[in-house]
Amino acid sequence: MNWDEFAHWGKHIADWGAFYHKTLRDRPVRAQTRPGEIAAKLSASPPDQGEAMDAIMADFEAIVMPGMTHWQHPRFFAYFPANATPPSMLAEQLVNTVAAQCMLWQTSPAATEVEGVMIDWLRQALGLPAGFTGVIQDSASSATLSAVLTMRERATGFTGNRDGLSGKGALRIYCSDQVHSSIDRACWVAGIGQANLVKLPATGPTYGMDMQALEAAITADLAAGHIPAGVIAITGGTGVGASDDLQAVLQVSRTHDLYTHLDAAWAGAAMICPEFRDQFWVGVEGFDSIVFNPHKWLGAQFDCSVQFLADATPQLNTLKIEPEYLKTTGDAVTNYSEWTIPLGRRFRALKLWFLIRSYGLDGLRIRIRNHVTWAAELCDGLRDMDGFEIVTDPILSLFSFRCPGDDAAQQRLVDAINDDGRIYLTQGSFDGRKIIRFQVGQFETTRDDVMLARDVIEDVWRQVK
Fold this sequence. Notes:
- By secondary structure, this protein is of the alpha/beta class.
- Helix content is 42%, strand content 14%.
- The longest helix has 35 residues, at 349-383.
């Protein structure tokens, strides 16, 4: 392909993209294909000769698109969204075209310096105090792993990387039973082990960590000769939106000098609205590490996760490695590859710059507030349906419910709704029972889209009951 062809197809794909987004409501939200169906349509061997782009694009539409679940669909109410606003997508096109590897300041000074400013814009937007710095990670999983590794090194006097963990004792990390599975995986990868991730019961109206249980677990571990290393709190857990009392978590953690990490991957974006901070954000300034995903509710193209650090030094002491070929001479600069596990880095900050400038914080706040309002309205509508039960009331824009029947009935309803195609939901588990989750967060969703969900749920339920 020459550059004239690139320009032609670039315009064609941009036009295709606009049409795709404008017609998403006409498509089923979840892919309606069967396992193996797409692979069976692909050539079993790579071609020896190049093919024309029009043939490739035709196959893209005929083979690939039927197998895509449409995350940008305005009736995507499953999981949490991975939003992609138009300005964010345009920024990604520029990043992909320039194709820089932004691991060091010198390999792209603009990427490093825009990232630093975007981190501070978001710090201000979320009401975090001056002094917090941070880094853009690919996902909250990577940020959490970075924090867990830092807990590990801090608890071992920063000798784990050098000596390994043999003979260090059982390092213990504490969290509630509502945390995301990425916390479990971080403990696996960090060598701490599943058995040393202490999950405590969730209690109260926001299903927060039981503080008496936390204190008792730490005390018991100390008596047993174990090494408490850190506490991971959540604001807006994936299952039902569980949110810890941050001040209470900090009080216990500080008593025992434990490193603290806050997972606010989804709900953190809502903290750009000051009215939500009194319920979910009080005490946040005391955490050592905080993560939230602009690629979820804020509208940045996936992937883009921001980790804030009260003091970057412990994480740098954990992750920084500087062979001669990566050293930067001259004036002191920030090399963000030293703050993260991967060496290679994309220019993720550009989409934040485009996004925030295009909508402004007020434009982003309006969407989040609408989503919270509409979720509460739909929850009340489902509450009035005969035999339906609201299991967990809305926490921000997430709630859960059950239809009449046993756990198998819940799964039958979820599967039938997703096969219907008009909306997309997921199941979950809470308090030993299967639940159906509903969250509002897709950037282009409207009140009509959300209210339609009640009709779809009722209609499909009548068919399967």
